[in-house]
Amino acid sequence: MTDHMAAIEANIETAGAYVLYEGYFVFMFGFGSHHPANELGIVRFGGHREAGETAIECVRREVKEESSLDVTFFENQAIYMENDHGNGYDRTKGSQRVHPILISRREENRFSAMYLAHGHGSLVPGAETQGVLFLRREDLGMICSRDTTLREYTENGGKLLLAGDLPESAVLSPHTQIRFLNRLFTLEEKLLTDYTASYEN
């Protein structure tokens, strides 16, 4: 790992994961302060690092708290780093067994990381989790390409787990990190194929 990349990973403030579980990408969704009243935000499992915690330890703890799942990390050296202008990503390569697949800037010298992971155990939404979406590749493409209501998602065979009542007329609004995963299927087709196949094995 270069000194530059080591410094970046040391300054990861929030960390999360793309969690593959039973053949689906699982994400939390629900109402939030950053979305209009008629939108259901779709976000990753993850959160802020605690004192003395590594980014990977943060992901393990947050995923466990939010879903009851344990995670194992997919060994990945490709890293997409948000560029200085915030309008694209530069690809680099790490030298360790596990690196974030995505590093985004939160502010100067503070970063957010996303890892590729596999979920294990029984998925039980945490106390603050309103619902969980189980996304197939085609679901991901649909909700990232056009406005899709919760009703449309379920009518197209979409799977979900609700911890409370959410209106079917509300529009699903994927976070930037979820949109990046959709792009990743084009940018890293072999990597994503290996990632999904490794869960089945």
Structure, described:
By secondary structure, the chain is of the alpha+beta class. It has a single domain, classed as Alpha-Beta Complex (Nucleoside Triphosphate Pyrophosphohydrolase). It contains six helices and 13 strands. Strands 1, 2, 3, 4, 5, 6, 7, 8, 9, 10, 11, 12 and 13 form a 13-stranded mixed sheet that branches. Helix 3 crosses helix 5 and helix 5 packs across helix 6. The longest helix is centred in the N-terminal third of the chain and has 13 residues. It is globular, with a radius of gyration of 16 Å. It starts with a helix and ends with a helix.
Question: What are the defining features of this structure?
Answer:
single chain, 201 residues, alpha+beta, Nucleoside Triphosphate Pyrophosphohydrolase, 13-stranded mixed sheet, 6 helices, 13 strands
